[in-house]
Design goal:
Length: about 190
């Protein structure tokens, strides 16, 4: 009888040790998996933060100072850009021409703040204010010009970027063109 009790106790200890070891191994696996997920999220968040920082430089420095030689820091050579008026253009050189044309009639155009910045994975979005003053003749597209009104404008704008290899491959620009024209023409 004593041997039977000893065997039962030994069996119970063996079961306990086996279960404990299995549970410990499972917890260790779970912990390793959790650590891996945390590291992946940390790396992804760091990448999003870097893209958002690049956006700040793009708007506050490159765009606002018309430093087009630096646009490649944030835009791919074959960038696809979607504009608020519905047209889409492809290529960095064309994008520079379009951006530069905005400064012909409002040379002080600038973006100096992004009150909202968000991102996830390879997509980022910023909201800011584009502002300036209509001080130079604006080409009307038919060889004529709209004379400057001296009116200031300040419009909310948003940019959504799709990133790959550290630069935007695709960019979506949003602002209200009617509000923009109403402000500079004084309507």
């Amino acid at each position: 009888m004593k041997n039977s009790i000893k065997r039962q106790i030994a069996g119970a200890i063996l079961v306990f040790v086996t279960l404990s070891t299995t549970a410990f191994a499972q917890k260790k696996e779970d912990k390793a998996s959790l650590v891996k997920q945390i590291k992946e999220l940390t790396a992804a968040n760091a990448q999003v933060a870097k893209h958002l920082e690049t956006f700040d430089t793009l708007d506050y420095t490159v765009f606002s100072n018309r430093d087009w030689t630096r646009l490649h820091e944030s835009h791919a050579k074959n960038i696809k850009v979607h504009f608020p008026d519905g047209h889409t253009e492809v290529g960095l050189e064309q994008h520079i021409k379009t951006l530069d044309a905005m400064f012909v009639y409002a040379p002080d155009t600038r973006i100096k703040e992004h009150p909202f910045k968000i991102g996830s994975s390879n997509i980022t979005a910023v909201m800011g204010y584009m502002e300036g003053t209509f001080t130079q003749p604006m080409p009307a597209g038919d060889g004529t010009f709209i004379q400057p009104t001296g009116k200031k404008f300040k419009i909310p704008m948003a940019t959504i970027g799709v990133w790959e290899n550290g630069v935007m491959q695709e960019e979506y620009l949003f602002w209200d063109n009617k509000s923009y024209m109403d402000q500079i023409l004084g309507k």
